[in-house]
Design goal:
With 759 residues, this protein is an all-alpha fold. The protein is 63% helix and 3% strand. It has helices spanning 11-37, 43-48, 64-68, 75-107, 114-137, 150-172, 181-200, 219-236, 240-254, 261-275, 290-302, 304-316, 322-327, 329-352, 354-360, 364-393, 401-434, 447-452, 455-485, 512-517, 520-544, 560-571, 586-593, 631-639, 641-644, 654-658, 666-677, 683-687, 689-707, 709-722, 733-743, and strands at residues 3-9, 203-205, 213-215, 491-497.
């Protein structure tokens, strides 16, 4: 076959490389900010202003600045912005960077379309900027790793499809017969993420001019779909694409072939098959059907085998090349990355077992586990790829290996100072929550006892974050200096013989997998079937069988004011710190509702779109919050949590008290709930929604004034001062929030437990 001349496109690789570095710094800085706020919740007050004379502030004596911020720096919003920045901006950009570079070399061809490459780049970056703006404004769905509202979900889909067309088009015009293992992982990633993203983000917009939408799934069903997505976002956004990078860049950096081709085959197919079944392990002891929990645990334990197979395949690739690790900072990053992958994928299945899950779930143990993977596996792989590509693409030596080594050691120290304190904090929380006195009362009844006990570990975690960020800053310096002294080549000349046309039929004596590797369409179809089986078996029965979520006759839909309050709760990201799921443990039932309390039942959540079970308890569970504290307590708690709970690390929400509640869409929300989701609102209830909300609000205000004369006096003074501009208290956002919080758990009582018959 005649040799053909062509060129590789390094321009698109450079764009994604710069985006990786820039958004990596942003993601790390946001994470550091969130970590700081967990032991210094007054940070927004320091920056924007406060009326608390005990706190130093850049604008002391004036809380209006904090009110004007409208919660942009609230912990709930910063936390979701941090996770989204790290996942979609840092890790995804690093994957695209490495994939666009490696695919062209592995397939011996330029990308299918330069135009599609750049459309993919810009749509993805526009999506990221849109996420930053909307999250800071409080526009989100609250669904972990999928907080983006519906227009951004559509943009993600469009960008991902463009990437897929470009990738599969490039595979189709390749000059290499068989697909290398890295390409398998890229294909599996694209197929699985497309499926997961679409099914989890099916939602109904309030209108096509509104950002607000509601999930088509409710309660336990929504929880199952979300964690099928959430766990597999970890699998197919944070794991399989990075494994593809590992299979290309680690052998290239070590100048060694992959240890085992057969192990690569086992690793790929077993991993993409098993991963899709494991999502329910995030919902152990919850209101999810028991069979789904059991399946999730079983397949999570099975995950150890393929995960460690991949880890060993990576590390054993370095056989005979370990002397290079001492001198090569790129290999140092890769070795620690693969080791962290192995540690995290051993710990994950252990946390999926019921014995450890009942102690570890909702604690900072899980945060430590996640960040061992994020900082060690994802971060260090990305850093290694950057350090590999910069000298190659700019045709020069790395400016300073010493600086790269400093980055490595600072990053490693950062991981240690982050993960170990979080493990200790998690063990401390899990055990303190469950301790009883000899007389049967909780030893640590006050929730704040468990919070203050782990503050030192939060501070150590912050120190680890500083180390990690400083290392990344050194990388930026090194990259800048290397780029300045090098010479970038946008189009790299290459040549390879063309690929002769042959039949797709399997040849006599040809191995099954060798045949699959040269028939990418069939391989893609089999990969889709492999990843779809687990989700179909778990999700379809749960969504289609009514018996999986029996209704409870006492559970009624939210009132219009409560529905508005719930949306405010979501806007502020309250579920980042509070769960709404009392598990069937004696300590949780006693702590959150008293000795005659009830654990959470699936039928209680049938009107919850989306579900709000949470994944972390920084604050106490709120599923039985209704009636536990007076309305005035909630008012003061939102204004300044430290007035009602000394030592609280909850941020302040004074804008809720100042803002007028926007009820312009209240009736439309009820109509949507009735028309699309069969929520049993009557026509009379919808027609009288405004009056219903007003009456409920007036009742709450009346109770607040009767319980706290100081609040009434303050409102009276404000009314005199503002005159016609005064907003009556019953028209403010805080009242809707209180209405929602006081509703939680009040439908179900021990004395009236009755399950409706299932038709």
């Amino acid at each position: 076959m005649e040799t053909q001349k062509f060129s590789y496109d390094n321009g698109i690789v450079k764009a994604f490389l710069y985006a990786t570095i820039a958004f990596g710094l942003v993601g790390f800085l946001l994470g550091l900010t969130a970590a700081l706020m967990l032991f210094y919740p007054e940070l927004p007050e320091f920056l924007f202003g406060t009326d608390d004379t005990t706190i130093k502030s850049l604008s002391s004596g004036n809380i209006q600045g904090l009110i004007n911020s409208q919660g942009a720096l609230g912990f709930g919003r910063i936390r979701m912005l941090h996770t989204s920045a790290v996942i979609f901006a840092f890790v995804c950009n690093s994957f695209f960077c490495g994939a666009y570079y490696s695919m062209q070399r592995l397939l011996k061809t330029r990308m299918y379309s330069d135009t599609l490459s750049w459309i993919h780049f810009w749509t993805w970056q526009i999506m990221i900027i849109s996420v930053v703006i909307t999250f800071l404004m409080g526009i989100n769905t609250s669904k972990e790793y999928a907080e983006h509202e519906w227009p951004i979900d559509i943009l993600i889909t469009i960008s991902w499809v463009i990437f897929g067309i470009n990738m599969f088009g490039t595979i189709a015009k390749r000059r290499v017969r068989h697909l290398y293992v890295a390409i398998w992982f890229y294909m599996g990633t694209w197929i699985a993420v497309a499926m997961l993203h679409i099914f989890n983000n099916l939602e109904v917009p309030l209108s096509f001019t509104s950002w607000k939408s509601y999930s088509i799934y409710a309660g336990a069903k929504d929880a199952l779909v979300q964690w099928w997505y959430g766990h597999n976002a970890v699998a197919f956004v944070l794991t399989t694409p990075v494994l593809g990078l590992m299979y290309y860049f680690l052998p290239k950096a070590a100048d060694r072939p992959v240890f085992s081709y057969k192990l690569s085959i086992i690793h790929f197919w077993s991993l993409i098959f098993v991963y899709l079944w494991a999502g329910p392990h995030h919902l152990q002891y919850t209101a999810l059907p028991a069979w789904a929990q059991a399946v999730g645990t079983g397949f999570s334990i099975m995950l150890i085998a393929p995960s460690w197979g991949g880890m060993l395949n990576g590390l054993l690739t370095l056989r005979g090349a370990w002397d290079k690790v001492r001198d090569n900072p790129i290999l140092k990053f890769f070795v620690v990355a693969v080791t962290c992958y192995g540690m995290a994928t051993f710990e994950g299945p252990l946390l999926a077992t019921k014995s450890l899950n009942k102690i570890g779930h909702y604690t900072d143990w899980v945060i430590g586990h996640v960040h061992l993977g994020a900082l060690g596996w994802n971060g260090f792989m990305a850093f290694g790829v950057v350090y590999y590509l910069i000298p190659v693409m700019w045709r020069t030596e790395l400016w300073s290996k010493k600086l790269a080594n400093w980055h490595f050691w600072l990053g490693t120290l950062g991981i240690i100072f982050y993960a170990i304190p979080m493990y200790i904090a998690g063990f401390t929380q899990g055990l303190m929550w469950k301790q009883f006195n000899p007389d049967g009362t909780l030893l640590w009844k006050n929730w704040l006892d468990t919070v203050t006990a782990i503050i030192p570990y939060f501070q150590l975690r912050f120190l680890g974050g500083i180390f990690y960020l400083l290392g990344a800053v050194l990388m930026v310096v090194n990259v800048f200096k290397t780029v300045r002294k090098g010479s970038f080549q946008k189009n790299v000349p290459a040549e390879a013989p063309g690929l002769a046309s042959i039949t797709d039929a399997r040849k006599e004596g040809e191995g099954v997998h060798l045949w699959l590797e040269r028939t990418p369409r069939l391989m893609a179809i089999l990969a889709f079937i492999t990843v779809a089986i687990g989700g179909a078996v778990e999700i379809i029965p749960t969504l289609t069988m009514k018996q999986n979520v029996p209704t409870i006759s006492a559970v009624k839909p939210y009132s219009p004011l409560e529905l508005e309050g719930r949306d405010l709760y979501i806007r502020e990201g309250c579920n980042s710190c509070h769960s709404q799921m009392i598990r069937p443990f004696r300590d949780e039932i006693v702590r959150f509702e008293g000795k005659n309390g009830q654990y959470s039942k699936a039928g209680e959540f049938i009107y919850d779109r989306p579900f709000l079970w949470g994944s972390k308890r920084t604050g106490p569970d709120l599923h039985r919050e209704g009636g536990r504290n007076p309305d005035s307590w909630h008012f003061k708690h939102m204004y300044n949590p430290r007035l009602t709970s000394a030592g609280s690390i909850m941020p302040r929400f004074p804008w809720l008290i100042s803002n007028k509640l926007d009820k312009s869409q209240m009736v439309n929300k009820m109509k949507l709930m009735k028309n699309y989701f069969d929520v049993p609102y009557s026509k009379a209830e919808i027609d009288s929604a405004d009056r219903w909300a007003d009456n409920q609000a007036k009742g709450i205000v009346k109770r607040i004034y009767s319980e706290a004369s100081d609040i009434k006096e303050q409102m009276d003074r404000t009314k005199k001062h503002k005159g016609a501009d005064y907003i009556p208290l019953e028209d403010r956002e805080i009242i809707a929030m209180i209405a929602y919080l006081q509703r939680l758990g009040t439908d179900i009582k021990t004395t009236q437990m009755k399950t409706a018959s299932v038709e």
